[in-house]
Amino acid sequence: MPSTLAQSWRSFWTLRKRRGGELWTHLVIAAALALLAWAALCLLGLAGVITVKVPDAAFLHRLLLGMLLLFLAIAWSMLAVVRLAEALLPDTMLARLSPVRDWRAAALVSLLLLAGLMLGNLVGSGLLALVYPDSEFFASSALRRQLRVLQFLPFLGIVAGLFWRGRLQRQAMQAQAVEAQLRLLQAQIEPHFLFNTLANIESLLDADPPRARAMLEAFSDHLRAGMGQLRVEETTLGAELEMAANYLRLLQIRMGARLRFAVDAGLEARAALLPPLLLQPLVENAIRHGLEPKVAGGEVRIEALVEEGRLRIRVVDDGLGQDAPSAGRGAGMALANIRARLRHRYGERASLNLRHADGTSATLELPYRTAS
Fold it and tell me: What is the bridge-based pairing of β-strands 298-307 and 259-265?
């Protein structure tokens, strides 16, 4: 049970459609948060209770229990409004809202929470009137209670603005750190690939000038696409596929008939937005750890499709896979880097899975978004 609650706590703060059987854990988490807020309010109001004359102990008891009931109603109503939004909004909209990356998403999420707050206040007021029908304090009209909440909207707006500002600033700093780490990793890998390619071109200049020229052109296209990807924070799958195809064409000139490749991706998939340089390391691993060690070579296939609001990318090779001598070296660093970037950008809504069977299949799955 502790592991289930811990997993639900991580997913509690994200918006997604498929949640499985974890509703009870989210109800428990919402109740715990309501209890913490109620306890904080009790501590803040303790000085006032001490200095202000209370009618009787029974009134104080009813007041504390009534406020706890109201807080529970608000917490569960906010949870219900969020779950309703998850059911009604398309996956593309949920991907824009969770995690929150800009002020528009922050405003929409805040409106959802405000709607839950107003609904919870209305439901809680009705429950208090039923539980304490003889109390004039709790029997006040629901409309009057809603107006009291509306009086606090400017204060709630300031608190929400400060909260989102701090969170967005932290996310921006974390994104910069992750991208800096990516660029450092890429800078460590590129010189090795660069010098090997230049050495191959030099060796072909006298023996096979047309092939050397073709390799140089393919190398220039690959570098041009790679430099462009390093300068942006978000790119399209089409641009990633073009860079991967340039890389494979370059290696095809070097490996000859030992390397075959195919790309299968429709226009819908190519328009998807994703962080740059997610696909390239998977293609490099397929070559370096799958096909290069195999004497006969083989084929690399890149497949991409959109299903139920999610983008699924597969890089499949029929190389040596986990039996390759270098299967455990180098590949792990690139895969760990990709998983860290996915976790930072999408949380639990994205994944990278590997399967070894007659080669290696790497499946990348993430929310589908487009620029429009």
Answer: parallel
CB 15 within 8 A of CB 98: yes
Contacts of 251 (CB under 8 A, 6+ apart): 259, 287
Amino acid at 349: R
Rounded Cα gap, residues 233 and 212, in angstroms = 34
The residues, any chain, with a CB within 8 Å of residue 261's CB and separated by 6 or more, are 245, 248, 252, 299, 300, 301, 302
Q: Which two tokens stand for residue 23?
A: 């509703």
Token code pair at residue 70: 């109201």
Residues 6+ apart with CB under 8 A from 346: 95, 99, 366, 367
Tokens representing 196 are 């090997």
Tens-of-pLDDT digits for all 372 residues of the chain? 556 677 777 777 778 776 655 788 888 999 999 999 888 888 776 555 444 455 566 777 777 888 899 899 999 999 999 999 988 888 778 777 777 777 888 888 899 999 999 899 888 888 887 877 776 666 565 566 666 777 777 888 888 888 888 888 887 787 777 766 666 665 555 556 677 777 878 888 878 888 888 888 888 877 777 666 666 778 999 999 998 998 898 888 888 889 999 999 999 999 999 988 889 889 988 998 888 888 888 999 999 999 988 999 999 999 887 655 555 555 567 788 888 888 877 877 889 999 988 889 999 999 998 887
CA dist 11 and 82 (Å) reads 13
Asked if omega into 209 is within 30° of 0 (cis), the reply is no
Q: What is the 3-state secondary structure (H, E, C) of 78-112?
A: HHHHHHHHHHHCCHHHHHHHCCCCCHHHHHHHHHH
Rounded Cα distance, 70 and 63, in Å: 10
Place of tokens 């569960």: 76
pTM as predicted? 0.63
The CA radius of gyration of the chain, in Å to the nearest whole number, is 28
The whole-angstrom separation of Cα 291 and Cα 260 is 10
- Both tokens of 44, joined, read 């803040």
> DSSP code of 187?
H
